């Protein structure tokens, strides 16, 4: 029953007064393990900067710093109609985007499909067939009885891929809980194009891109202060524009040193060696039990896919190691199921507006079949705040590291992803962390502002496809494999 009970006061301090000592001790214990103070944030950023550099070097490192073959930003004159396919961690989206004559404007038509859970651990063939089904449905629905030929496609494939060319990409490893055999280590474009060819779909993959690169380009299309594109969602990552001269691993290409090239950092892999991140025992279990142990260390502490699981493990730990402290004599079987809670569970707790935590109480009962009393609810609320705050503060470290590395004092950062758009207080907590890391004086406004991005995986993919075709037309075919097919699209 919503609507009963006093509304919450802005401060939570008073609400802790009725909590028994042993629960207060537990809260304190959680605060100790999940709090990342300013000093630690700075340490993380210092190491992050070194790791970004290492990723650009010939030897490479944990963070792949993938070269994307996206040379510079759009100028607003890009035009044409493009398909965009967005394969994220949760949904698949097909879009048709018309970049119109007005500078920086576009029209978009789109359909969204939920990626079935079983597909994520199924076979490669099932994956490509499913994607082709979605594309086919979209085209049949929106272009019934039309004679179509040569539709250029920007394919947003949001996983780490090594690209020797923009229309090519070897999957380095699956992330975000995907575990499809036979795809890692191979170019994903040929099997994808093969299913399209078999169905007679007149589509040509013009650019394979990452969601962060798309976010960077789409955001810069409408705001020239945008210097970084970020995703804080099921997974985490960022892209920014680097000078060719600062990328030793492509020195052999002899590009003019000031050539701008977008780098897809893939910094979810930051600190896979576990040097600096303040991991808890829960983070260690998540990694151990994941399909890819030892990988995506930073992502596993900050991304939406894992927040609910961190929370579940922490609660279960209290129940199992401190019998009687919470949920005495209750059936905790639902809480035992891995990944039974997602980030929206924590969001809902943090959003509970009632002083008596009535919505949180209903949520626990509905989802976990657990009846909690007020003091237990207070602990659960604090735990959600701590995990959400830790994610936001650590997320700010990646942005701060790129800004520091590039000597960017002021800029806008385009951000997207479910955690950024939906998780309460994520933006304010991240902004506060940036202030602490970058030492802005109290009386100064934020210099680096993380703000909602344009649709990177749709519009960004279309723009990158447009930029690629423009290059081909101008005879600049660096990083393009299938020039002849591209020429037919122009
Ligand atoms: C992937 C990145 C992607 C990020 C956000 C990570 O798991 O490796 O490619 O940009 O998630 O979607």
From TrEMBL:
Gene Ontology BP terms: D-glucose import; fructose import across plasma membrane; fructose metabolic process; glucose metabolic process; glycolytic process; intracellular glucose homeostasis; mannose metabolic process
Family the UniProt entry places it in: Belongs to the hexokinase family.
Pathway involvement of the protein, from the record: Carbohydrate metabolism; hexose metabolism; Carbohydrate degradation; glycolysis; D-glyceraldehyde 3-phosphate and glycerone phosphate from D-glucose: step 1/4
GO CC list: cytosol; mitochondrion
Enzyme Commission number(s) from the entry: 2.7.1.-
Keyword Nucleotide-binding listed: yes
Domain Hexokinase N-terminal: residue ranges: 26-221
Organism listed in the record: Talaromyces rugulosus
Keyword vocabulary terms for this entry: Allosteric enzyme, ATP-binding, Glycolysis, Kinase, Nucleotide-binding, Transferase
Name this polypeptide is given: Phosphotransferase
MF GO annotations: ATP binding; D-glucose binding; fructokinase activity; glucokinase activity; mannokinase activity
Residues of the Hexokinase C-terminal domain: 227-467
Reaction catalysis annotation: D-fructose + ATP = D-fructose 6-phosphate + ADP + H(+); a D-hexose + ATP = a D-hexose 6-phosphate + ADP + H(+)
